[in-house]
Amino acid sequence: MTITPGVLGDWAMEVAPYTDGTNPTTWTRVFGITEFTPPQTEKNLEDDSEFDGTHWTSQIATGISWTGEATLKTPRAGMAEDPGQEILKTASREVLEGGLVHVRFWQVGATTGDQGVADSTFVANGGPKTDLTTAALTLTGRGALTEFTVSGG
């Protein structure tokens, strides 16, 4: 079987302001993504070895977390803000539930993607005067990353 690779530009992301316990009815596409790391899961492993066992150790997962990261091209001062970026930026300046967003990611053309609730960290990047203005986005999951059915795309 021949594998035909995709490109990272095949990914799309939508966000919605956090609503406690209620699924959003309206999603806003995030534009200006120049780099993207799809949501990655990481297990918290704890040693569950026994003193009376062998010299081999043992570990077991006691939790799973996830994060997603992106670099976003941001508009110049005085230009219209991207509505999706504004949701992320607004949440990044709040704490507790105010800092959360609903987020979903999928590969363009796929029938399923991942969604969840995440804390948003949106930080403007610096650089030389010839660079475009960008921001670093980190989405840190709060709870499960679940599958959803993509409609439209």
Radius of gyration: 19 Å
The level of helicity is under 10%
Structural class: mainly beta
Number of alpha- plus pi-helical segments: 1
Mean of residue pLDDT values: 89
Strand coverage percent: over 45%
How many β-strand runs?
8
Q: Summarize the biggest pleated sheet.
A: 8 strands, antiparallel
Describe the structure.
The chain is mainly beta and 153 residues long. Helices cover 7% and strands 47% of the residues. The chain is built from one helix and eight strands. Strands 1, 2, 3, 4, 5, 6, 7 and 8 form an eight-stranded antiparallel β-sheet that branches. Strand 5 (100-107) and strand 6 (112-124) form a beta hairpin. The longest helix has 10 residues, at 83-92.
